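#lab-general

N.A. 3:47 PM
ok so I finally got the sequence cleaned up, no stray characters, all 349 residues accounted for. can someone with queue access submit it? mine expired

B.Y. 3:52 PM
send it over

N.A. 3:53 PM
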Amino acid sequence: MLQIELQLFEQLLNELQDYISPMQVNGHVMAIIDCLCCFANNAMHFNYKKPAITDDFILDIKDSRHPVIERNLPPGEAYIANDIYLDPATQQIIILTGPNMSGKSAVLRQTALITLMAHMGSFVPASDAKISLTDKIFTRVGASDNLSGGESTFMVEMNETASIINNLTKRSLILLDEIGRGTSTYDGISIAWSIAEFLHNSPHQPKTLFATHYHELNELENKFSGIKNFHVTNKEVGNKIIFLRKLAPGGSTHSFGIHVARMAGMPPALIERANEILKQLEDSREAGSAVNLDENIKKLSTPKMQLSIFDAHSITFDEIRKLLEEVDINRLTPVEALLKLQEIKGKVK
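B.Y. 4:20 PM
back already:
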């Protein structure tokens, strides 16, 4: 019985042999059609525009948007679009500074995604886009280590950056995010500065977006014609910072790291002490003694320690106060009020 079934199966395979190749071709064609339909559907629903792939070396994107982030925004919130212009002759490298969480990395990523989408044959999230023919998109974004290979985060960063430097071409697009942050301040600034110099002076002149918190790199604009400073705008209202997420010419001199630490829920006493240290360091810089950061750190005053039975309660009361400030009493239902009261009671305990 088994032998008969095997014979029937072999006979069936022989009969289907002539149809396998046409089926594979049809499957390939259907996959292409499915991909193109997806491109068309996205273009119609999300206001994508047809890009122009040019043979020159200019990247000019008007009102660029991140195709993933804009799809995940809260209802009614519009994505803040930005213009991106890179030209080896006039603006080869953009040094991008701005506060933490302001959107610097998003600008880098959307530039790479739009370039890639254009080369795939898709419309792009922009009002207009002229994309130069690009052979490689190099990125050094994020932080991770290689424990199995015995490599630290900084070593991985340097390996990846070295790979970019050694393989770039005149048609490459390079995106660098926070190069040099994994080592000491002076080493990091020195490496980041020399990388920007090398890319500018390279005979290939690759188009580069370089996001950094090293505000010292803003000085590169005064030394090299092809390097321009841009920053992500923000607005300070009282003790709060509002991220406007709009690119503007010029460098930023403040990262607002302490504001972000407060937003993350750091204890108020810790935030207050960080502000004290920052003020002392800034005062030293204004006094002209910021040549040696180590010396200024040695001069920092120690906090006045005072034991108090109210310290822990003060932190709790600050949390409760913040919680109550966020409550809209006019829209609070009785059930929500009871739940909020239970939450406050839990904090007191």
